[in-house]
Amino acid sequence: MSLHTLLIFAATYALACAFPGPTVTALVARIMGKGTRRAPAFCLGLMAGEMIWVATAMFGLALVAALFQPVFVVIRYLGAAYLLFLAWKLWTAPATAPEESRAGGGEGIRLFFGGLALAMGNPKTMLFYLALLPTLVDLSHVTMGRFLEIALVVGVIYSIVLTSYVLLAARARRAFRSSRAMRIVNRLTGGVMAGAAVVVATRS
Fold it and tell me: Which of 47, 83, 169, 179 is buried most, with the most CB atoms less than 10 Å from its CB?
């Protein structure tokens, strides 16, 4: 694949994934409420889901995804339920100073699969790839080399976008020092997380 083609894909993808959707909203809300501890696990789950959608689109598995649409519906609802659980945890969190909350046993694994379920519950991601990739790649002759090129671009850009949102959310969180401010943050982030859950559950 030519460098020109990769740059076109990279620019288009960067603009698309930088716009905050339910996944970014959930990530920011959790960091605002709980801090950055275990944020990498959640981001890894989001990244894994993104890579699955890239592979699904590039290797022509759209038909398989359509046949197993009920599975993706279940995954979407599981992702929404997990977001609602996080929303409840944020809403009821103590209004303490914004120190990093300690992670419980197995929280990293739960956050990874929560991020994965959230990412996989968004089939519009695959539709984006199916709309863009055929204009750049001959999907009837996909090679592992081309897939790795696209996957590398996606991995680098998505990592930069997620890291940027993590850092911005963490910086914003440090601006709140009083118990009253933290109570407001907890309630707002819990509400935002619940809103993201509704979006995930109702989008088609």
Answer: 83
